[in-house]
Amino acid sequence: MGVTDSFIVENGSAIYIPKDYFSFPFEYDFLTEKYRVIVLGERYQKIREVVDELGVKCFGRMSVEEVSKVTGLSEDLAKLAKQREYLEPLVLGEDEKEKLRLVEKAGLRWTYGGKFYSVIGKTDKGKAVKKLVELFRKEFGKVESIGIGDSPNDFSMLEVVDKPFLIGNKKIRNFRVVESFDEIFDEI
Predict the structure, then answer these.
(1) What is the Cβ-side half-sphere exposure of residue 84, based on CA atoms within 13 angstroms?
(2) Per residue in 113-164, pLDDT tens?
(3) Is CATH 3.30.465.10 the classification given to domain 44-120?
């Protein structure tokens, strides 16, 4: 994708920071060829163990074709969507939502992104954004953070940024609601 800056993955489960991005040392969990990785969530294997016990439909058990069909993604993008390190998307029927309580009993969390529930570790987008913004402020001083979200799993992120924007859903909390990115660009 050509991303050369730091980024957060899988609903706040990890932060990837290019090796020489910050001029100061900071704690991280492991090193890849290009990144220092801060892990805030749980690894996929533990999450899958819990999900497998629930017996619900999840991306990990679905074919590329099935993921493509339920998401509307091309098969190439569906193949990428199946590649997980820290969370597992669920395809739940109305009668299966009680299984989310079992996720919590197993010591994990779940989020809802507008179409799918996802099982994750005890983290969220807000924790990850807060940590990354702290690192940016240590490096650059005053930094203004902007968050753009469109569903309930974005709330924790919108609560910790300086300028939160919620796209197109007027009935959710007290965030600034906008209908398009143009409105955001006009304001920032």
Answers:
(1) 26
(2) 878 999 999 999 999 999 999 999 999 999 999 999 888 889 999 999 999 9
(3) no
- Segment 69-85 shows an average pLDDT of 96
Which token pair is 81?
A: 């969507």
Rounded to whole angstroms, the maximal C-alpha distance in the chain is 51
**Residue 173: helix, strand or coil by DSSP?**
coil
Q: How many residues does the chain have?
A: 188
Q: Is the dihedral of CA 151, 85, 49, 53 positive or negative?
A: positive
Q: Which of 140, 134, 139, 165 has the alpha carbon at shortest distance from 150?
A: 165
Query: Cα separation of 59 and 66, whole Å?
Result: 9
Could you give the 3-state DSSP secondary structure of residue 46?
helix
In the structure encoding, which two tokens stand for residue 146, read together?
Answer: 């902007």
In this prediction, residue 2 carries a pLDDT of 78
pTM score, two decimals? 0.87
Residues of the chain with CATH 3.30.980.20: 44-120
Q: What is the DSSP string of 57-101?
A: EEGGGS-HHHHHHHH---HHHHHHHT--SS-EEEE--GGGTTHHH
